[in-house]
Design brief:
The protein has helices at residues 10-44, 54-69, 72-78, 80-87, 92-117, 121-129, 134-168, 175-185, 190-219. By secondary structure, the protein is mostly helical. It has a single domain, classed as MetI-like fold (Orthogonal Bundle), CATH 1.10.3720.
Length: 221
């Protein structure tokens, strides 16, 4: 094992880890802010729901399915012109966040819709019987009751984003994926590849453990 870590620059590893966390945090927050209302709207306009609108639901569902079906590496490339217009660059952390959000917000929206469908319909009917408005039902009953499922969905989305940030390294987005591509793959530095993969594995495990803990706490309420 002598000389195994000769190619490792721990300063680069640390900076790449921070870049990955920045991409993860920024894109996860934006994905939740966009995906949550979209998922709620999908649920409300669905069949036999509060605001049943078959045409609206069909259009939203189609758009969500289209965005979810595009391979993320293709989405990264296709969105380069839009990303440049939006943030001024397609490189680095800033250049990675728009495609990350577009790639995961529809995914999270579908998870939100599924979580809301798991809420006992009797709760909705009871709220309606008491004269509650749609807004009151959504914020006072649906979202609180679905919170464990929403947190579980956010955890799954965060883990998917970790893999997406690694893929974003292919187009120079920075982070651990970029380090793995430039040094581990292009320069055949296996030790760099191993360290970056281990760092990503640790990050995924931490996210999953945190998500499971939050779900357990919310489920006991």
């Amino acid at each position: 094992m002598e000389g195994w870590f000769d190619n490792i620059d721990w300063t680069d590893i640390g900076q790449a880890s921070l870049d990955t966390l920045a991409m993860l945090g920024g894109s996860l927050l934006a994905s939740i802010l966009l995906g949550l209302p979209l998922g709620v709207l999908l649920f409300l306009t669905g069949k036999r729901q509060l605001l049943e609108q078959p045409v609206v639901y069909a259009i939203l569902s189609f758009l969500v399915n289209v965005l979810r079906s595009v391979p993320f590496i293709i989405l990264l490339i296709v969105m380069i012109p839009f990303t440049v217009v939006l943030v001024g660059t397609s490189l680095g952390v800033a250049g990675a966040i728009p495609p990350l959000v577009i790639g995961t917000a529809p995914f999270f929206a579908r998870l939100v819709e599924n979580a809301l469908r798991e809420v006992d319909r009797g709760i909705i009917e009871a709220c309606q019987a008491m004269g509650a408005t749609t807004r009151q039902i959504v914020f006072g009953a649906l979202l609180p009751e679905a919170m464990p499922g929403l947190v579980a969905g956010a955890t799954v989305t965060a883990i998917a984003l970790v893999s997406y940030t690694a893929m974003a390294g292919v187009i120079g987005a920075g982070g651990l994926g970029d380090l793995a591509v430039r040094f581990g793959y292009q320069r055949f530095q296996t030790d760099v590849m191993v360290v970056t993969v281990l760092a990503l594995l640790v990050l995924v495990q931490v996210l999953q453990m945190l998500g499971d803990w939050l779900v357990a706490r919310l489920s006991r309420r």
